[in-house]
Amino acid sequence: MALTPNVARPARSWSPSAPVEEPTRNPFKRYWRAVTDDEASWGRRLFVGLGVPFGIGLGGLVLGVAAFAVYAWSLLPETPDAYALARATQSQPTVVVDVRGERITQFEPEFREWVPLDSIPTHLVDALIATEDRDFYGHGGIDYQRTVGAIWNTLKGARQGGSTITQQLARNLFPDEIGNAGTIERKTKEALAARAIERDHTKREILEAYLNTVPFLYNAHGVELAARTYFASHAPDLTVPQSAMLVAMLKGPNQFNPVRHPEAATDRRNLVLRLMAEQGVLGQEEAAAYQAEGLDIDLQPQPSTYSAAPHFTAAVRRELDAWATARGYDVDRDGLVVRTTLDLTMQREAEAAVAARAGRLQRTADGQWGRRVPRAALDAAFRKTTAYAQAVDGGMSESEALAEVRADAALWDSVAQTVRRVEASLVAIQPETGAVRAYVGSRDFRVDEYDHAGVALRQPGSTFKAFVFAGALQRGYGPEDEIDGGAAEVELDDGTTWTPAGGWSEGTLADALAYSKNAATARLTQEIGPHRVALVAQRMGVESDLDVVPSIGLGTSPVTLLEMVSAYATIANDGLRREPKLITRVETASGTVLDTFGGVGRQALTRRDARNLLDMLRGVIDRGTGRPLREMGVTGDLAGKTGTTQEYADGWFIAMRPGLAVGAWVGFNDQRVTFRSKQTGEGSRTALPVVGDFLLRVQDRLPNVAFPPPPGRYADLDFDADGDSLLIDEADVADLTAEDYEWAYGEDPYDPVEVDVPDVERPMEDRPDLRQPPPATRRIGWDGNGQRSDERQRTDAPRRAPIPRTPPPSAPRGGQSGEPVMIPRDAPPTPDPEVRNRNNRGGMTAEEMIEEARRRDGDG
Predict the structure, then answer these.
(1) Which domain holds residue 44?
(2) Which region, left, alpha or beta, applies to residue 719 given φ > 0 means left and ψ of -120 to 50 means alpha?
(3) One domain for residues 647 and 754
(4) Distance CA 172, CA 112 (A)
(5) What secondary structure does DSSP assign to 460-495, as a single string?
(6) What is the domain-level CATH number for residue 134?
(7) How far apart are CA 191 and CA 80, in angstroms?
(8) If both were cysteines, with which of 18, 193, 231, 255 could 170 make a disulfide (CB 3.0 to 4.6 Å apart)?
């Protein structure tokens, strides 16, 4: 057969009628032409058809891996590392103690008790691995196959557990840093933390940490507390079915709760037993026998962390968190020791006083209100109930939901009881340091967690009048100055006139404060200006925003009880303002001091003004609205002020005695509910008994000394049979040291400034009980023409016997015997002359010291 030689194909001839393919830059069109080109070889077409997609896919994969690597790298700073694990597993709670070292409470992330792995039954570990992580001993913290599947399902919107035991441990230890959300970020952080844990810890350490930190219900963390909670047992004593039940709950503590869902819990437990048999750690017959057993639950819920002073503890925690955040400490895990100012003995007495007196007042309120409760207050409480929220969520309108919950008789009774519940709070502060010795925020923290001492803002009523009279003293008025107590008319900014009630006849400033006269206080507020009242209050310790209005002096701006007691403590501390102090210092567990708390004081009032004001507040207790405190049997040098707000919604009383300022508030959570009569709702009948009860319980523990006297007042003198005051030789005058005079006469007025005063208390026994003659008085009022009258005059009949500051002209000088002079009754005994000269600054004579005191008082 003859072979036909190859003949070359003729070249394509071009014809004007043939279509011409235009060149394109579109890569997809070029790719499609290359794949469908009939003229190209099949190999080229195959290479282009598969190679291009493969290359694109490979490039995309590389870019995706690179992008994920960058993303994971960006999460590293937010992801706990192995050091964090060691810190978490070795964490110790922070202990809070009182002023004597008695434990108040402790701060920890959860309630747990650590058990070594050697004490945990082997079958519990086997059940855990068989159910949660079969390849636990084979992977390095991440099961990549399960992780990829979990991520893929997450992207599709479904949730699938792909976490190993190590990853679960990371999530349990660091819930804030990692979280529980089903997101790529959470799974990435979880995986990174797991790798870090596996790199630096053994499998046994990981198992031990996991079993001691895994959360269960009923406030139990770890298998030891879980064993106590569900089986009234201990971890080493758990049986195989009990271990399987605990592992079964890990899938979903609520879903497989053996208390509420026993059938679901039983099915899940039996699945764990079957998986143990499949893994060969349990025989098939044993598994079947265990599956036939009941759950045998003996529920013993674990208590939450106890606090002996819960409201105080909450306040300490707020302050401590701010401190720890600024310094990089973990309050729950660093094993700190927080030494506080609280006196647990006083705290228990304060709680007892609040509970006892508020209980009596509750019976009064129940008798006044019965089942009658203000409708608005009742409806407001109904709107806070779960039943109301569920009704609204179910599609009802607010009015329909309200009508439905009102119809529930049991709910109505419960809500009404809550609305008319009498609440009370008490705060006690040591004036010299600002240390809070007692802090009660409510009658019962278990019933009402709201802090009525340091958080609740309520109108203080007449307790605010102290700032008005403090401002008047700063302006140069004196306690014996007379003031017109008639009805005062105050013109307001809007042109209207405000006339406060409580007018009386003319009297002194001291009487106006003692008897809590509103008209006189309003007149005095107008004289010195509402702005000065606000300024004085803020300097003395009130930190809440104040409404600078004409009625500010009557206590119309809401404040906290803690603020008011702190301000009164300023009065008791010679005008030196100390901020309320809760914490004294923070230490490590070994006793190393990390920080101390407490700073400089601020001289808010001059010593002269503070002592005058305190003496005026003595009159409240001795002859004014605070007399019931004496009638209760409270002893000691006392000063204070009552307060009552409109419609008897709030009752206040604040008392001072050497070493302690204590105040109480009584009222209702809803101010539309009040005591319904003056006889039952005044502060002297609600809050005063609370303070009095507390003082009766603790007064034996307080120093039995007197406050320093005000300027111009000596101790009351004894009189002989003829009515003449008993005289003491002038020689004793020289026994008074310059320091004695300083305490007696006070200091010249000056503007308040920041001063660095050591945070120590001056011993009470070092304060001589000296009093001086009354200063010039001022008569404040309006004449018949409506003009202000300001007449300065001397008091003709002082309440206490006047004592001349200089001896008579015929008296010898220098402490020699001769004509006697009158000096304070409680002056210190005559020391040895040599000692006397050393005590007197520069060896001053009696005359020189007296003249110095006169100049200091401005009478020279």
Answers:
(1) 27-67
(2) beta
(3) no
(4) 13
(5) -GGGGHHHHHHHHHHTT--TT-EE--SPP-EE-TTS
(6) 1.10.3810.10
(7) 11
(8) 193
The pLDDT of residue 604? 96
Dist CA 527 CA 105 (whole Å): 50
In angstroms and rounded to an integer, the radius of gyration of the C-alpha atoms of the chain is 41
Running DSSP on this structure, what letter comes out for residue 339?
Answer: E
Flag whether pLDDT at 533 surpasses 90.
yes
Q: What percent of the chain shows pLDDT beyond 90? A: 43
Residues 429/436, Cβ–Cβ less than 8 Å: yes
pLDDT above 50 (res 632)? yes
Q: Tell me the mean pLDDT in the region 321-348.
A: 93
What CATH number has the domain bearing residue 517? 3.40.710.10
Shared-domain flag, residues 739 and 675: no
How many domains, in total, are found in the chain? Answer: 5
Residue-wise over 491-529: b if at least 16 C-beta within 10 A, else e? Answer: eeeeeeeeebebbbeebbbbbbbbbbbbbbbbbbbebbe
* Residues 6 or more apart in contact with residue 758 via CB below 8 angstroms: none
pLDDT of 336 strictly over 50: yes
Lowest mean pLDDT among 22-36, 232-246, 677-691, 811-825: 811-825
Give the integer Cα–Cα distance in Å for 710 and 694.
27
Q: Determine, yes or no, domain membership for 60.
A: yes
* 164 and 246 part of one domain: yes
Encoded tokens for 546: 């104040």
Same domain, 48 and 148: no
Q: Determine the Cα–Cα distance for residues 803 and 628; give it in Å rounded to an integer.
A: 32
- When comparing pLDDT for 552 and 493, which is higher? 552
pLDDT for the residue 528: 94
Which residues, 6+ apart, have CB-to-CB distance to 300 below 8 Å? 228, 229, 230, 232
Both 676 and 554 in one domain: the answer is yes
Is 657 inside any structural domain?
Answer: yes
- pLDDT at 524 (0 to 100): 93
Say if residue 147's pLDDT is above 50.
yes
